[in-house]
C-alpha cells in the first residue's frame, strides 16, 4: 500500500522534510496535490470531509490506509521506525523526536523572519518588522539552534546526530542548511565556519544515492518566495 | 521512582501543560527548580553536563531514571499512555499527539503576540509590532485554532476531544482558555460564544478532583507577565 502525502504542490515548505524521508526510505508514495489537477481538490476534500473524527489541521499530512497523521514531526516519528530512519527502542525514539521538535521550532522562527506580524499578512506589509526580526534571528537564534546541533554531533562522535546511523533528523539538518543558504546566502556564508559538523552531515546526505536521485528529479521543487525559506535581498546583508 | 520535571520556577509557561497532566495522573513528581534554591542550579547543570549524548534544548524536560524527554508535546506523548491520558493503540496515540502539536503551534503564536520581533527583545521594545500582531491574531488565528477544536469536539460527540475519555489534550484546552481569559479578558469575553464545547471541556476539567486540588494548591503558579499568557492593556481591546 502506497503512502499518500498531502502538501502544497508549489513549495518545499514543511512538507519537504517528509519528502526527503520518503525519498531516503525508498518508500512508495504519491504526492497527491502534485499528481494531477485534481490533487488540490482531493486535499481540500479530505480536510473538509465530515467523515473523519479528527481531520488534519493543516498540510502536511500523511495518509496510510485509514490512518491520517498530521504535523511534520509526527509524520517522521511514524515513518522513522518503519523505514530504519529512527531507533526502535522507545526511549531513543522519543529522544530523536525531541530533536525534530527543536527543528520544528527553528523552522517556525525561520518563517517568522519574513512574517513577524503573522502568517495572515503579506511580507510587503511587514518589511520593517521583518528586518528587525531577521537581525535578531541571525544574532541570537541561528547560533543557538545550529550551535545546539553542532554540539549534538560533537557528542555523538558522528558522523550523524545519533552516531553512525543516519536518522530523519540528519535529513532535516540537510534541508536547514540548503534552505538557509538559499534564503540568506551572505549571512549563511559568514556563519558556516561555526558549524563544520552540521555541514558535514549536509554533504553526506547530499551524496546518498536516493537523495541524490531525488534532488536531481523533478520531485524536488525549486526554492521560491512562497515557502519557509525566502530570498529577500533586504533581509540578507 | 518519581518523575523529575525541570522548568522555570516562576511561571506557568509551557511547563504548565505538563504539570496539569502530572496532577491529573496523580503522578509522583518533583518540580525540581521549584523545590529549593538549588533547583535552578540543578536544572542548569543538567542542561550543561557533558555526560549526556543528547542534552535538552530548553525547559521543560522530564527526567525518568536515565531517560530525559524534551518538549511539552513529547513529554505528554510519553506520559499519556503510562497514565491513561491517551489511547494505547499507536494510530490513536499519534492522532492525539497531532492535536497536541496543533496546540503547540497555537501556544507559539500566543507568545508571538507580545514578542513578534523575537524572543530576545523585551516587549517594551516591540509594542507597536505587538499591537498589529495581536489584532491579526484575534481576527484570524484564534478563530482558526479554537474553531478547529470546537469542531473536533463536535465530531467526537464529546464531552472530550476523543469522546468519552479525558486525554491530555483536554487538559491543554483548559489551560488555553484560562490563559486567554487572563491575558485578553475583553477580547476573550467577546469570542467565547463561538466555542461552547471548548468552554464545557474547560469547566469539566476544572471540576476534576485532582485538578481542583492542584489549582487550589501553591503548586499552581499565578499567571504573570513573564510567561506565555501576559496581560498587557494595550493588547486587549
Topology:
2 copies of one chain form a homodimer.
Chain A: E1 3-6, H1 15-25, E2 29-31, H2 32-35, H3 39-48, E3 61-64, E4 67-70, H4 72-82, H5 90-114, H6 127-156, H7 168-183, H8 185-191, H9 196-207, H10 209-216
Parallel strand pairs in A: 1-2
Antiparallel strand pairs in A: 1-3, 3-4
Quick take:
Two copies of one chain form a homodimer. Chain A has helices at 15-25, 32-35, 39-48, 72-82, 90-114, 127-156, 168-183, 185-191, 196-207, 209-216; strands spanning 3-6, 29-31, 61-64, 67-70.
Describe what this molecule looks like in 3D.
The structure is a homodimer of 237-residue chains. In chain A, a hairpin with a 2-residue loop joins strand 3 (61-64) and strand 4 (67-70). Chain A has a 4-stranded mixed sheet with strand order 2-1-3-4. Helices cover 57% and strands 6% of the residues of chain A. Chain A is of the alpha+beta class and 237 residues long. Chain A has 2 domains: 3-82, 3-Layer(aba) Sandwich (Glutaredoxin), CATH 3.40.30.10; 90-235, Up-down Bundle (Glutathione S-transferase Yfyf (Class Pi), Chain A, domain 2). Chain A has 10 helices and 4 strands. The first copy, chain A, is globular and about 50 Å long. Chain A has helices at residues 15-25, 32-35, 39-48, 72-82, 90-114, 127-156, 168-183, 185-191, 196-207, 209-216; strands at 3-6, 29-31, 61-64, 67-70. In chain A, helix 1 (15-25) crosses helix 7 (168-183) and helix 5 (90-114) packs antiparallel against helix 6 (127-156). Chains A and B meet through strand 4, helix 4, helix 5 and helix 6 of A and strand 4, helix 4, helix 5 and helix 6 of B.
Amino acid at each position: 500500500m502506497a503512502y499518500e502525502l498531502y502538501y502544497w504542490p508549489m513549495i518545499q515548505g514543511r512538507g519537504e522534510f517528509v519528502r526527503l524521508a520518503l525519498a531516503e526510505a525508498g518508500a512508495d508514495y504519491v504526492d497527491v496535490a502534485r499528481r494531477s489537477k485534481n490533487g488540490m481538490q482531493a486535499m481540500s476534500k479530505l480536510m473538509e470531509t465530515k467523515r473523519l473524527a479528527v481531520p488534519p489541521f493543516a498540510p502536511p499530512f500523511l495518509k496510510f490506509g485509514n490512518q491520517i497523521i498530521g504535523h511534520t514531526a509526527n509524520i517522521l516519528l511514524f515513518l522513522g521506525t518503519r523505514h530504519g530512519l529512527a531507533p526502535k527502542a522507545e526511549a531513543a525514539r522519543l529522544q530523536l523526536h525531541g530533536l525534530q521538535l527543536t527543528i520544528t521550532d527553528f523552522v517556525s522562527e525561520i518563517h517568522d523572519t519574513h512574517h513577524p506580524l503573522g502568517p495572515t499578512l503579506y511580507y510587503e506589509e511587514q518589511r520593517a518588522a521583518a528586518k528587525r526580526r531577521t537581525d535578531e534571528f541571525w544574532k541570537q537564534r541561528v547560533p543557538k539552534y545550529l550551535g545546539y546541533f553542532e554540539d549534538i554531533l560533537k557528542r555523538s562522535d558522528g558522523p550523524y546526530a545519533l552516531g553512525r546511523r543516519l536518522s530523519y533528523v540528519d535529513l532535516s539538518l540537510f534541508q536547514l542548511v540548503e534552505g538557509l543558504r538559499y534564503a540568506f546566502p551572505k549571512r549563511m556564508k559568514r556563519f558556516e565556519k561555526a558549524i563544520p559538523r552540521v555541514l558535514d552531515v549536509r554533504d553526506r546526505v547530499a551524496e546518498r544515492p536516493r537523495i541524490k536521485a531525488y534532488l536531481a528529479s523533478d520531485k524536488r521543487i525549486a526554492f521560491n518566495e512562497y515557502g519557509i525559506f525566502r530570498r529577500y535581498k533586504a533581509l540578507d546583508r
